[in-house]
């Protein structure tokens, strides 16, 4: 008994007897769907209709265009209504054409098995015409990765292992492990490549488990060119990308030539900024880097050294050393464990200021069009490029011991940097590691045009807030400038957060139990970076009025900037 379904065999007879021969196609009748398929569109032939034949059942669900027992093979895709000269009037989706119909590929589409956009890469197969070929990393990359692995291996084989097996076996074990790490690095280098497809950076890696990461360049916040010590000795560099919402650096390309890294950085930033000429590939690894631009400020290394000496760690270190020596002299114990533990603790205290000096050595800030260029570092040099329209917040800090010299520190908040290291050592958001008030005003005016650091309208919370902040009430303030929202906080270390209205993502009003009894509230202006600014302990009526004003100004600023979401 037949259930009315069609036999999938190509030579099977119709289920209800022989099918009548359709009349010839004319201007008011399309050809039969079982007629031989045309190879290309004939301009004199009318287009195929997109609706099923009268009386045909419509299959349920979203599979409207998929063929079924009662659904003819009529094309319903976007090319059915507006065909082109090289596009046949036949569906080419995976469910639209039976297996016994020959399907010709689209004009310019890659055939299965080739390495193209949307296809897994196959070594040795050229990409389709018009697509940029994949680029490999520098050939010395495995050597640098192997050198780092050697240090880890030697550190893993402790001195106790050396004393038990002897120097010869210890050296042999280290050599075997280092050789294995180098072989793995070579294999990883051979299977790693990158190229730009449209507005995406695609990074391919992996041998057994292949992985392709596609990074939309619209989300790109900043690009860093980092040169560790080994990379400086070999003339190489590492490219690091920071994107919106990234918990860590995306797609670190280690390592490239210095000129190639600079050219790729310029191209990525140009594509992210929607520059039309950025879509074309660069001239090659030998492309010259862009000019440095206009110099804004250079930090003197002597000021950097003095600023780290005026930190609590360095200031209290002599007292700590004197206390430890007094303990040793009074107890009369100079054992190895006691001395080693003391030196380790002192090294941990000194390590953070020393790292900051090494990281911020020869700090230089340049302005190149609508981007900031930041260069710093001694043992590991960094070249960071930040588009100004990506800046979310500017933070100003006055440490307690710096105020005697009138120094301050400036930081940028760029979306994607909020998950950086908490000790501020490797955070790539430094705008000015140390400087006076005049330099700070100059830099803030470059990043936020029209904003004067000393002319921000900051008002204190009401007097009843002293019950919550008896000492720091005078240091708290908030206010609305013409272009930014500013909030100040802190007693020993003063902090000021400046948020442009166009960067505000949400506005919140919060109240704690003590604030409710005192009729106080805190207004938060959140940004994409996560920090934002907060006006603490405002009067409840003032807090709601401030929140409404922030919301209105944020919408107006985004509309003025052409944001479609406003």
TrEMBL record:
Coiled coil: none annotated. Keywords: Membrane, Transmembrane, Transmembrane helix. Pfam families: bPH_2. Residues 1-10 have a biased composition (Basic and acidic residues). Residues 11-36, 44-62 have a biased composition (Pro residues). The chain crosses the membrane at residues 168-190, 304-325, 331-351. PANTHER family: UPF0699 TRANSMEMBRANE PROTEIN YDBS, UPF0699 TRANSMEMBRANE PROTEIN YDBT. This is Putative membrane protein. Residues 1-135 are annotated as: Disordered. Residues 189-267, 363-429, 480-548 form the YdbS-like PH domain. The lineage of its organism: Bacteria, Bacillati, Actinomycetota, Actinomycetes, Micromonosporales. The keyword Signal does not apply. Signal peptide: none annotated. Residues 94-106 have a biased composition (Low complexity). InterPro entries: YdbS-like_PH.
């Amino acid at each position: 008994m037949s259930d009315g379904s069609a036999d999938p065999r190509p030579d099977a007879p119709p289920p209800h007897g022989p099918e009548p021969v359709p009349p010839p196609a004319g201007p008011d009748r399309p050809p039969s769907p079982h007629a031989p398929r045309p190879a290309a569109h004939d301009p004199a032939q009318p287009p195929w209709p997109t609706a099923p034949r009268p009386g045909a059942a419509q299959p349920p669900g979203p599979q409207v265009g998929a063929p079924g027992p009662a659904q003819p093979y009529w094309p319903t895709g976007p090319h059915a209504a507006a065909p082109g000269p090289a596009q046949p009037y036949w569906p080419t989706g995976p469910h639209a054409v039976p297996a016994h119909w020959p399907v010709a590929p689209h004009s310019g589409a890659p055939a299965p098995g080739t390495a193209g956009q949307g296809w897994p890469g196959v070594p040795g197969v050229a990409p389709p015409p018009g697509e940029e070929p994949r680029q490999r990393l520098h050939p010395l990359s495995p050597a640098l990765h192997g050198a780092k692995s050697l240090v880890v291996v030697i550190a893993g084989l402790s001195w106790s292992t050396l004393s038990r097996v002897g120097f010869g076996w210890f050296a042999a074990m280290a050599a075997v492990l280092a050789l294995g790490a180098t072989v793995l690095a070579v294999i990883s280098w051979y299977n790693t490549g990158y190229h730009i497809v449209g507005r995406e950076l695609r990074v391919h890696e992996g041998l057994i488990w292949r992985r392709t990461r596609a990074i939309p360049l619209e989300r790109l916040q900043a690009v860093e060119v980092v040169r560790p010590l080994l990379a400086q000795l070999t003339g190489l560099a590492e490219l690091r990308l920071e994107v919106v919402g990234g918990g860590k650096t995306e797609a670190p390309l280690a390592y490239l030539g210095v000129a190639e890294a600079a050219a790729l950085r310029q191209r990525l930033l140009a594509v992210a900024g929607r520059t039309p000429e950025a879509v074309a590939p660069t001239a090659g690894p030998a492309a010259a880097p862009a000019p440095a631009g206009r110099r804004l400020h250079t930090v003197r290394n002597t000021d950097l050294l003095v600023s780290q000496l005026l930190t609590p760690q360095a200031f209290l270190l002599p007292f700590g050393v004197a206390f430890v020596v007094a303990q040793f002299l009074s107890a009369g114990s100079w054992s190895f464990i006691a001395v080693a533990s003391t030196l380790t603790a002192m090294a941990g205290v000194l390590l953070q200021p020393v790292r900051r000096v090494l990281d911020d050595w020869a700090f230089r800030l340049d302005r190149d069009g609508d981007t900031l260029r930041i260069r710093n570092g001694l043992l590991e040099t960094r070249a960071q490029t930040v588009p100004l329209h990506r800046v979310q917040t500017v933070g100003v800090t006055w440490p307690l011991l710096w105020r005697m010299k009138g120094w301050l520190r400036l930081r940028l908040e760029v979306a994607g940097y909020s998950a950086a290291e908490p000790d501020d050592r490797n955070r790539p958001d430094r705008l000015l590691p140390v400087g006076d008030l005049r330099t700070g005003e100059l830099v803030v005016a470059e990043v936020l045009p029209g904003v004067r650091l000393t002319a921000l309208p900051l008002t204190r919370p009401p007097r009843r807030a002293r019950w919550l902040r008896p000492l720091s009430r005078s240091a708290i303030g908030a206010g609305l400038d013409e272009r930014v929202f500013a909030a100040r906080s802190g007693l020993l270390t003063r902090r000021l957060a400046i948020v442009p209205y166009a960067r505000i993502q949400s506005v919140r009003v919060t109240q704690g139990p003590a604030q409710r009894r005192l009729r106080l509230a805190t207004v938060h202006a959140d940004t994409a970076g996560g920090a934002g600014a907060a006006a603490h302990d405002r009067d409840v009526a003032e807090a709601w009025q401030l929140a409404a004003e922030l919301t209105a100004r944020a919408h107006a600023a985004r509309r003025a900037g052409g944001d479609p979401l406003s």
